[in-house]
Design goal:
By secondary structure, this protein is mainly alpha-helical. The chain contains four helices and four strands; from the N terminus they run E-H-E-H-E-H-E-H.
Amino acid sequence: MLADWNEDAVKAAADNLTAQGHKAIAIRCDVADDADVEAMVARTVEAFGRLDAACNNAGVQNVLAETAETTREDYDRVMGINLRGEWSCMKFELQQMRKQGGGVSSIARHSVDLSAARNAASITPPSMACLAATPRAR
């Protein structure tokens, strides 16, 4: 299962995997929206029977700007996707995994190159918060 807010892009990626012989479905999902995330998990279970593993790696950076130049709207969008969205994914994935007796949910936020965002203050807090929360998620 692949999910993204960009429906065309995620469909193309799933089609590519399917063409290579893999079973893949594309789901349009805005991880900042709990209803979208809950529906994504439900659709995954509907298609595959269960959810055994999840790698959450959604993340955005609206504008590369210094803190003094960042708008509240930009900051809230980044936090909504990069922090709250990651939490929401883990929440609904873990609920499903508990129902079925197990599974693994992880965040790939460690793949973010924080040094590349020296002046982009809005990306660092959610990235670090996700890193801190991952080992304790149950």
